[in-house]
Amino acid sequence: MTLTLGFSPCPNDTFIFDALVNHKIDTGGLTFDVVLEDVQTLNKWAIEGKLDFSKISYGVLPLITRQYVVLQSGGALGKGVGPLLISKKPIDRLQEKIQDLTVAIPGENTTAHMLFSLAFPKAVHKKFVLFSDVENEVLSGQVDMGVIIHENRFTYQKRGLVKLIDLGHFWEETTGNPIPLGGIVAKRSLDPSLVNRVDALINLAVAYSFEKYPEISTYIREHAQEMDESVMRQHIDLYVNDFSRRLGIQGEQAVRKLLEVYGQLHPETALREPLVLTGW
Question: Which of 23, 125, 150, 223 is catalytic?
Answer without folding.
Answer: 150
